[in-house]
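hiii so my PI (J.) wants the whole complex modelled not just the main chain, which honestly fair. so below is everything: two entries, each one labled with what it is. i double checked the lines twice but i was tired so who knows lol
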Amino acid sequence: MRGNGLTRLLKVIAPGFIASVSEVDACAIIYLVFVGYSFKYEFLWVLAFSTLLYVFILQLTSEVTLVTGKGIAQCIRERYGRRFITLTIFTTISSNMALLSIELLGAGLSLTVLTGLPLRVTVLIAMLILLGLVVSGAMDEVDNVLMGLGLTLLAYVLVAVCSKPPIEQVATGILKPRIEISWNYLSVVIAIMGTLISPYGIFYQSSNLAGKKLPITTLTLSFDGILLGALVNFLVCTAIVMTGAAINTLEVVEGVLIVFRSMVGEGASLVFALGLFSGSILTGTVILYSTLALISEVYEAKLLTHSPYRRLEALMIIVLSVIAGGIPALVDLNYVRIAFIAGLLSTAFTVFPLIGLARLYSDDGVMGEFKASTIMKVCTWTIISFFILLNLALLTLSVPYTPLLGHVTIPIEGLLSFVVVAVAAYIAGRRDVVGRLVKAKRKHLKHNFNSGFAGV
Amino acid sequence: MAEIGLLTTYLTIGLTPILYNYLMVKKVLKRHKETHDLLCRHMEEDKKHHKEVHVLTPISEGRRTVTLRVPCYVTMLHDEDGLKILQLTLNHDHLFNQWELGRNLSLSEDKAVRSGL
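here's the output for the full assembly
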């Protein structure tokens, strides 16, 4: 590794830190304000539990990546074949696009709060900012910007602390779990977990670590980065719930702005907008990077290298992704609705990468000297099974339109898009559509190359 | 009582895998470092006691075998017809960095097995 001590340290801890912090996105902010508004501090234990589970998942990711020296997607493809990874790639990209929509809306919303421009215009501006940030350079250079953006979210913590929350109630909410067997209660638990655990973080962290070619000796440092990011994530999310608990209106933005104004006066709009904008742009960048990394690793496209030809391909994917994510945001400006659809897809589609990750981690042939003990294997598969059960429960809950938080129902479009994407992913996985297309393109290029030489 | 049970379960499920994994990784990394240091020490010793063996020049009658550490073991027999390699031993118990092998070969080894190599 090149650079001085601090640069090297940042290089190692950045992937885990960013992957952890990126979960505090527009989706989480909007949803957690609702949770705070509706249930006060009752669900803080779910927040803590989800954060711990996510830390564990990211630990496994960095372990597999640093041991093999390759990204998770590449390892899955090499070890278990293209069919398995095709399912993962389709589902992950679908959830990435849905989440990108809410991130663009979140960034647009923050710009609207600051400038007063119409939301459609600010969403377009947000699309351009995101494009500029991603295209401007390799992630190594953007790492520090992203870490800085992540830290701006701490503004929420400051506001929450200034609001003098009831410490005893908050501590009880975090430490005292309460399980209630009711659809409404379980749906809130599931949605919080889904908001805080998404597939893009796994692929982002893995690809970023593999790209830096870090030695295995940096594994514990990488764990420290994850823990640090998770701590920031937990603090910010708890602060958002506290802010939600203090508002008196269902209108998220207006309500939060009132609370912020009472704490920081006229600077309220700036503090709120900065946090929302940072969270949205940070997650948007991570989502785009993880999409590129996933395609790159699965189809050996090397999209993240500096070769101009490959960069052009990467640029096309980025532009298409931003447009695909931007269209729902521009058509439907109801951010709560889009946050729910994105959360729904994200929760359901975390299952596929998790199964791949757990298979790799339990595979002694892959892990070599770092092979998992039986206890760790049992722990890992228990957590994966828990997630699958969680998703089955989510599907069951969403069918009868159970109102979430007592007043928001999952829209039919969310359910339909879930079914369509799942069926498409299944068919594509069975037939390996993209793999065949790539093969056909390579064959065509080879043919052209040979015929060119024949002409010479 | 039920609340204490629930709290214990919540902390156990949430914290134990993280801490256990962290400690296990630290242990393996420590072992890895020790192996690496040992290998370096042996390499240095080998460098110190390095003696060039000219395999093409005749070796005295009394000494029939020569062992070289590279760090694998190559046992050679010298007879009247010339030099014959008898055995190549890869002793990875303490000398060879097994993890480095695993990192580089684990996936390709599997491919090789599948393709019958």
